[in-house]
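Question:
Now give any protein.
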Amino acid sequence: MKRSKMKTLVWVVAMAAVLCWVVPAMAAEVSQGKCKEYNKQTKVITIEEYNLNFSKANPYGEPTGEMNAYDVSNAQIGIPPQPGDVLRIAYDVKGTKREALKVMNVSKQDLRKK
């Protein structure tokens, strides 16, 4: 193998290794559930989590009863949530805090209806 081809191969393998290491670190976790409270002063949204058991009666999943709070101070928020709306939240966990990156109001911008 020529020296230039070997350099190219080493470069491609090194870049692939870096991407395999970096890409998973950029992925966020996602939760979906019913908005129970949106405190605009503290910038915290509390939702009742839904599971992944979809049905005609529960098109967004079944309520689990588990309540979680998300810091939305730096999040991109689509249609402002109100209690009762179904939200999908992409977030990162920082210690014990869930920091939202994006908040989608699923019940008011349901893509399945388009």
